[in-house]
Design a protein that fits this description.
It is a single chain. With 504 residues, the chain is α/β, with parallel strands linked by helices. Helix content is 54%, strand content 13%. Strand 3, helix 3 and strand 4 form a beta-alpha-beta unit. Helix 10 packs across helix 18 and helix 11 crosses helix 16. Bound molecules: fe (ii) ion (FE2).
Amino acid sequence: MSEGKIFVIDDELVMCELLRDLLQERGFEVSYVTNPLEGIEKIKKEDFDVIVTDLKMPQIDGISLIKEIFSFLPDAIIVVITGYPSFETVQTALKMGAYNYIAKPFNIDEVSFIMKKAVAFRYLNIANKKLIKDINEHNEKLEEKVKERTAELGLIYKITQDITSTLKLDETLTVIIERITSTLRIEMCSILLLDNKTQELTIKASKGLTEDIIKNTRIKMGEKISGWVLKNKQDVLVEDIEKDPLFAKRNQEKYYTHSFISIPLIIKDKPIGVLNVNNKISKEPFNENDFRFLKGISQSISIAIENAQLYTSLENTYLNTVSALTSAIDIKDHYTHSHSEHVTKYALAIAKEIGLPEQEICYIKQACQLHDLGKIGINDTILSKTTKLTEKEWEEIKKHPLKSVDILKPLDFLKEVITLVEQHHERYDGKGYPYGLKGEEIKIGARIIAVADSFDAMTTERPYRKALSLQEAIEEIKRNKGTQFDPNIVDVFLKIVPKLINYD
Ligand SMILES: [Fe+2]
């Protein structure tokens, strides 16, 4: 094996041959040229470990030659030969980057030693450069990865904030589905929650699934893919379901899945549901990054769902309590115990006939149950008085909407409901109370409740008067159309009232 590949440039042929013979004997592979210009061309084409060059040649001076070589081969290992101790030139050559020099006359051991060192230096240099390049590449990759992960974490943080920004379960689930679908660009996404009574998974929110699937999917623990994931509390990333021995058979859903990720939603070691994502729009299979992202947000999803469920249950408990209280107030105010129930029935029928949004109807329902809550703070003697109320007593009665508001105010989730309760005695012509709001200034829900409430009040016996007949009450509503009541709502009410009055 060669000790190294040496290229000699010297205008004296004797010197070239001498160096060749001596170095070949020591195991080097040597070639030479006597014309430095020819040498430059050769260096451009062939790889040498060390270039040995004379400094004094007629065609080109040594310094210019070195400059030229470095211009196209900056890593060249150049050893200069100096015929006589012209240190100034040697020093310039070394300053320019030449590796070493040999002085004539030669000591062959010394020349061989310098060549060996030069060759070793070159390989060390090459290894060093490669190492630096590798380190730089590695660092770049690392930096890229850090950037990627930082972006990923940022996204996870942002989504976590979004999904925990609401306590309403439906809204929470909708936000989750929306964020996942837009981030991963997928065809289908669904959240199935476990029904504690039936122990079945049902689809609570989804994208890309048909109404039929959403309505009819019931998966028992251990069944299909979602049931398996829930039972085993194990995440699944499948790139191609057809090739997956465990899940190919379980893929019996009525929609076609080729790649999917399924993650169990777990709270305190208890599975509460499953998050499924199926098929990227790009048709690429899901990868580790997608999986890591979903895993990253799955804990927050579970917590958000649990919070929303707890909140809903708290809301229901609260509403049930208040509803019981309201029934008590109905009786205290000498209505039938069903007054609030009847008001709710009329008001909802009107709201539905008008085509109000589901959410608005829900607010109206709650407001109907709570509207007279403030009467709890009104003296019984006033409420049960059989003779005409004095002005002062009447003023006291008129405080009940605001008393209701005072009781309900701390409950943030009832904000919209409270406004309806507050306005249920406002009149369309602005002569109502507590604020004397007019027409559209009064929320539509409150305008509806006003008709429903008055109609049921008229048909109920009061301490100070007998009940009107249904027909009389309808006439009374008609008579107040456009003054006390919103004319449009009265029209809707008159249209539907025949169907409504067959109650017990
Ligand atoms: Fe009232």
